[in-house]
Design goal:
Helix content is about 0%, strand content about 60%. By secondary structure, the protein is mainly β. Strands 1, 2, 3, 4, 5, 6, 7, 8, 9 and 10 form a 10-stranded parallel β-sheet that branches. The chain is globular and about 30 Å long.
């Protein structure tokens, strides 16, 4: 019997389930800092720093300066982003602004508007 491997239509770097911090219908502004995987799925304006994964959920409308280990965009993000590892924009995700990332992946249906630098992961570490 032959084993079959199921391949997702949109394979992602994401391999962890982040905690949802701000759910749809919430609006907040300010500074957030995390050391664990987090998903923001609301309106947010300000600054986010995390040494782990940040997921911009499909309902998110974020305007921020972001420093993260990894970033996944499913909703809307406007701002300046520094990501040490990978940044991916999924179908329906929209980014406008400036990025600096170790790796970048934009899926069909994802939108990137702005300028970006993709560099070695070690060189992109937030400092």
């Amino acid at each position: 019997m032959k084993a079959t491997q199921q391949v997702s239509e949109n394979p992602s770097f994401l391999q962890v389930s982040p905690r949802t911090v701000l759910s749809p219908g919430t609006a907040i502004s300010g500074k957030l800092s995390f050391n664990l995987p987090v998903k923001i799925d609301s309106r947010f304006k300000g600054e986010v720093k995390t040494s782990d994964l940040l997921v911009v959920g499909p309902n998110a409308q974020i305007e921020a300066r972001i420093s993260a280990r990894h970033l996944q965009i499913e909703g809307s993000l406007v701002g300046k982003v520094q990501v040490a590892g990978w940044l991916e924009i999924l179908p329906g995700g929209r980014f406008q602004g400036e990025i600096e990332a170790g790796k970048l992946r934009v899926y069909p249906g994802g939108v990137f508007e702005g300028k970006g630098d993709v560099m070695r992961e070690e060189a992109a570490l937030p400092g």
